[in-house]
Design a protein that fits this description.
The chain is of the alpha+beta class. It has one domain: START domain (Alpha-D-Glucose-1,6-Bisphosphate, Chain A, domain 4), CATH 3.30.530. It is built from three helices and seven strands; from the N terminus they run βααββββββα. Strands 1-7-6-5-4-3-2 form a seven-stranded antiparallel sheet, with helices on one face. The longest helix has 27 residues, at about 125-150. The chain is globular and about 45 Å long.
Length: about 150
């Protein structure tokens, strides 16, 4: 399949989380909580202040392979919407706009439950599409368990 075929594709998943939006938001934006669901078994350093047009860095290792994910915050509306660009050092792609995927998290709370809609778009290659779709399909379920587990405490 042509590597450019996925640049217009969108990976989307919506999950219901039995917790208020403020708790889901905290899990999405507070580095010490993000580590619990993004990389529970591996070291991960997350650096950002969530200011629009400011950077986000995620550094760690996966199976002894060091990586750095880099991007810029695009949108940050507490308890409602978070969006940022994403480029991984593992991809070996040039640091140009076409190499970045865009991740977004939209939250909608109703009666103490939060519907989280996650989207990724702008995949520079088929391999990146497959990797990110696989990772986020699993990781969003981990996020749900972590947040719902915190509610039970």
């Amino acid at each position: 399949m042509d590597a450019q075929a996925y640049t217009t594709a969108v990976f989307s998943k919506t999950i219901a989380i039995n917790a208020p939006a403020k708790l889901v938001w905290a899990a999405l934006t507070e580095p010490h909580l993000m580590k619990q669901w993004m990389s529970p078994d591996n070291p991960l350093e997350i650096i950002t202040d969530w200011t629009i047009d400011r950077p986000i860095f995620m550094r760690g290792s996966h199976y002894d392979m060091p990586f750095e994910n880099y991007g810029m915050v695009l949108q940050c509306q507490p308890n409602v919407l978070l969006s940022y660009t994403h480029l991984s050092s593992v991809s070996n792609l040039a640091d140009v706009a076409e190499s970045y995927s865009i991740l977004s998290f939209a939250l909608a709370e109703e009666e103490g439950e939060t519907m989280l809609t996650f989207n990724i778009r702008n995949f520079p290659t088929d391999a990146i599409y497959r990797h990110l779709a696989f990772y986020w399909n699993v990781t969003l379920e981990v996020l749900k368990r972590v947040v719902e587990g915190a509610v039970q405490l």
